[in-house]
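The data layer described in this paper is built around a simple, fixed record for each protein. Because each token names a local backbone shape, the row as a whole describes the fold. We quote a single record here, exactly as it is kept in our systems:

***
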Amino acid sequence: MTGLTVVVGYGDAALDVLRHLPLHDETPEVVVVDRDAIALTGALANGARVVRGDGRDLCTLQQARVPFAARVVVAVPDDQEGLLVTGLARGLTPTAVVVAAVRDSANQELFTRLGADEVFVRASSA
């Protein structure tokens, strides 16, 4: 898939999901949203643009250009927070592929109902 990928939450889960997703562009455009300065420094080192903020905030998601994204990866540490981010992302971009990383496999159906096209259960939590 070509186009903008927005990653909300930049830790091990996000890196695992990104490894499994085909990014056909030679230099894909990736924007990372996170509250943690260290995570954002890592994202910058990997060539991403960054937005420091909370993925549960509509203004932050708009600043990250979610409405124009081809793909949104939701990889926050908490499933409840992830459900909210998934719903907000889907509301902002009905055509993007929304991919969510979840801790508890029991939450897979909830993520799908809120708009996730793909749900990955984190290996360390399965």
